[in-house]
């Protein structure tokens, strides 16, 4: 990480939703709505973020049901991408899921999202399946790649 300013990884609250939506809209081609993000607070969810001088730089949302954790969303503001913040978020989530007795973390990613796939592979996720033509795109459909990592 070449950005040396102090940052912290914290648990987010419903009060952070507007900032999360802003980052989501900047960073994703198919962003989640405010209502969907707001629904990701509660006993089954772990929602963390990276803040620097009070500013949210990125966030991630995991749902855990018994011993299975699913990474639902990970998002870093474009101005802060490529600085290791996504890696920091995912490592933090993997550690928390393991502490919460999860045995696996799962996720799905668009086939075309090579940067996300690279991040996931870097921390040990492996492709476990596909959902054919799962995502609609402007020029057709693309597969969802299912990935998992034993904890």
From TrEMBL:
Chief localization: cytoplasm
Record organism: Shewanella metallivivens
Assigned keywords, A-Z: Acyltransferase, Cytoplasm, Ribonucleoprotein, Ribosomal protein, Transferase
Function: Acetylates the N-terminal alanine of ribosomal protein bS18.
Protein name, per record: [Ribosomal protein bS18]-alanine N-acetyltransferase
Localisation: Cytoplasm
EC number(s) stated in the UniProt entry for this protein: 2.3.1.266
Catalytic activity reported: N-terminal L-alanyl-[ribosomal protein bS18] + acetyl-CoA = N-terminal N(alpha)-acetyl-L-alanyl-[ribosomal protein bS18] + CoA + H(+)
